[in-house]
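### Sample
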Amino acid sequence: MKHKYLYLLLPLCAVSSAGAATTMGGVTLGPISGLGANSTFAIWNTMNGWHATANPNGLAGTGSFPGTTMWAPQNSQPGSNESNTKLVKVSNGVGGGPYAASGSVYYGGFSGTPNLNGGTLSLSNASPLDNLQTVLFQIQIGEAATYDFHNHVLPVMSYTLVGDVTLHTLAAAASSNYHKLDNGTIEMPTGTEPLYINSYAMWFDFSEIAGDVESFSVSWTGVQHAQLYGVSLQQDDVAASGAILPVAVPEPSAVLLGGIGFLFLLRRRK
């Protein structure tokens, strides 16, 4: 499927209807294994805004296209075992912002300009796990004009410490774009480019931070016309490592080409 610059139609055609948790290319967000017994998990993966009677687990009160409504923080959904983390709308983008459409949170707006600020969301927690050492963040987001995050900037962590009013930042210690679902192509000035729905996992390491964490927030800015299908967050009081993140899954075409090459080498050796 090829996508032109028909961005004004995206609220109708770029999000799938879904009344339950989304699975993108076989990947449904879930807890990453390998954490301690006290780890917590919060998830948002029913990302539509249908009326509560039809979809009690969806996102409520987020407005409609172009998405300029500043909606209230959204509680974690079924599958979570903690409720302190909230999905928060931080700001709108250029001429629109993120809102819950038919099957995803859509970053609305009228522009056909690629890589335009579509608005900022965050997962924010004012009562973190005691002795917080590890935060794992996952996100599934669909590209628009080959971009998902504005300027390709990955989500960032900010936090405060008990007894300290300073807002600190913490870069991800490791990240993994562990699944790329083919979502067609788009005609760009450089030619035909692929589009993906990307599943990312990120590890934030608090084990070297001196002091107790009082609050934290993972925030990201999507591009206009991107689609958000799910986010999740895990906390643990045990230090982890980058090895805990999911490993990238090769594209089927790459696997096929690799297999053909291997068979060719076998034939040469015979």
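Residues 1-19, 253-270 have pLDDT under 50 and may be disordered. This sample (PEP-CTERM sorting domain-containing protein) is used throughout the tutorial notebook.
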